[in-house]
Amino acid sequence: MINQSGVRIFDRQAKSYERRRRKLQMAGERSRLLRHARGRVLEVSVGAGNNFPFYPKGVHVTAVDFSPKMIEKAKEAAVEYGMDCELLVSDVERLEFPENSFDTVVSTLSLCAYQNPEVVLGKMKAWVKDRGKILLFEHGISTNPTYAWFQNRLDGLSVKLVGCHQNRDILQMVHDKGIEIENLERMMINSVFLIRGTVRKGL
């Protein structure tokens, strides 16, 4: 069953996500990460298509979000940027694709929102091909004790207002799933991460 409360929260934010896209918010970070996308790409929790301006030419993107309002905005963005794109309304946590379906899997600022982020990471790893890329732009718990204290205190309010956890240990989850980190950038007091990961299968 889709988390209808979560859908409503993100439906309400669709217009603000679109405004951020039009401002090319976080353009540097998105560009540095997404230039590594190749071939058949799966983008989970696509939002309003905020990554679309930064994909290299020649990729085919399958983009998924459980918010119909977000998908409406992403469709507009796909037309605007001439994307070779298929858009699906679906809950990523319950989505199924055959294993080894994609050359690249992309998630930007979405692991904070899932009820079971470890499950989603496991799906990403299964869906990507051997030696395929998992590209993550995520935020989570900081290594700075003071900042982490505030993140923990504000977590419940953040989930209620914007559907987003502040205190998840992103690097530990990636490590636990056996995703090899090729490149890592840490930002904002070690609470935001650009991760270029590779999946090696059959070892």
TrEMBL record:
Q: Which GO terms describe its molecular function?
A: S-adenosylmethionine-dependent methyltransferase activity
Q: Per UniProt, which keywords does this protein have?
A: Methyltransferase, Transferase
Methyltransferase type domain residues? 42-135
One Pfam family from the record: Methyltransf_11
Source organism's superkingdom? Bacteria
> One GO BP annotation here?
methylation
Protein name per Swiss-Prot or TrEMBL: Methyltransferase domain-containing protein
Q: Which taxonomic lineage is given here?
A: Bacteria, Bacillati, Bacillota, Bacilli, Bacillales
